[in-house]
Amino acid sequence: MRVLVVEDERMLADAIAKGLRAEGMAVDVCYDGDAARLRLAAYDYDVAVLDRDLPRVGGDDLTRKVVAGPHSTRVLMLTVSSGIDDRVHGLSLGADDYLAKPFAFAELVARVRALARRTAPAAPPVLERAGITLDTVGRQVFRGGRYIPLSKKEFGVLAELMRPGAAVVTSERLLEKVWDEHIDPATNVVRVAMMTLRRKLGDPPVIETLPGSGYVIREAP
Question: Between 20 and 30 A from 34 (CA), which of 40, 101, 135, 151?
Answer without folding.
Answer: 101
